[in-house]
Amino acid sequence: MSMPGLIVVGSGPAGISAAESYREHGGAGPVLVLSADPDLPYERPPLSKEFLRGETDDVALHPAEWFTDRDIELRHGHTVDAIDVDGHGVTVDGERIGYGALVLALGAGPSPLTVPGGERALQLRALTDARRLRSAAADATSAVVIGAGFIGCEAAASLAMRGLSVTLVAPDRVPQEKRLGADAGERLLNFVTSTGVRYVGGTSVEAIDEDGVRLDDGVTIDCDLVLAATGVTPHGELAAAAGLQMKDSRIVVGADMRTSAADVYAAGDVTFAFNAAAGRHVAVEHWQDAAEQGTVAGAQAAGADATWDVVPGFWSTIGEATVKYHAWGDGYDVSRVAERDGGFTVWYEADGTAVGVLTCEADDDYDHGETLIAQRRPTPV
């Protein structure tokens, strides 16, 4: 970079949105995106669905010319070694590069499966993971998926739709019972099992070996491949080493995505961000929220005014069913189900106000729920 401009560390939705927003708001100087990922920026949501099923290979976030047109330089496959917040520079492969503004979009990585033989399990986070899993699925007839979060449910359904005999293993009696409640869990269970997946709940994995996956009740499930969908851990190490204010493994930022260091911003899964509508810091791991936080960070870095004030949310497609979810993500007191024509809505309340909504074939409720949550109004049920 000939002069200090914007450096973005990370090429996921937060990082690329930050670079785009910086340019859209008149940010001057060069823009450099550094990423350890060997692939050009890509969409992650299709990896557990269309890509895994072999229905598409096109998961590019933008064509190459999109970056050229915006004068955004990409260096992928390069790891940032250190950040000097006082000297306004980063070190990459031994080279020091100065910045005028820095956006840390460090993302998160799969949490390790800490059981004997856990290293035998495949993961699904990056495009390289997805290629490996899809290749393994092509040669397999059976699979065990460990973890019934949305990624686990999506991947299990996709593998079953490919013709594999799939067992989904999780500690909850139904998928995500602790997070979303029994009523929602029953409906997610129906979506998963309708694709042919066998669900084994209320259990945990003790070990993985050449015979398969051994559960805590002594049962071993034979399989050709194992996928661990056991959550993610934010990549906060680089920020912590630079002395930024942290909350556990996340970077603490305001609603403007500013960190505790001058001219340094953060966005996406690695943040513990203040949400202006919630009036408190929240942690989210959703694709759309990462993009929105990146947009705020890029605008602020360019000198524009922007604030993160939307209710977090995402969509998930399990087999043929799509569910949509808005929530602050830090719990609820009571949940209530409303049946809808061809679908349903689950309303979540805390202290008499709406804090979440989960819908299927009920888009009006999804949109209305976002408003109720943001305005701290009661649910309609």
Protein model, in words:
- The protein is an alpha/beta fold and about 375 residues long.
- The protein has three domains: about 5-110 and about 230-300, FAD/NAD(P)-binding domain, CATH 3.50.50; about 110-230, 3-Layer(bba) Sandwich (FAD/NAD(P)-binding domain), CATH 3.50.50.60; about 330-375, no CATH class.
- The protein has nine helices and 25 strands.
- Strands 1, 2, 3, 4, 5, 6 and 18 form a seven-stranded mixed β-sheet that branches.
- Helix 2 (about 65-70) links the parallel strand 2 (about 30-35) and strand 3.
Features:
FAD/NAD(P)-binding domain, five-stranded antiparallel β-sheet, globular, seven-stranded mixed β-sheet, 32% strand, alpha/beta, single chain, oxidoreductase activity, acting on NAD(P)H, 25 strands, FAD/NAD-bd_sf
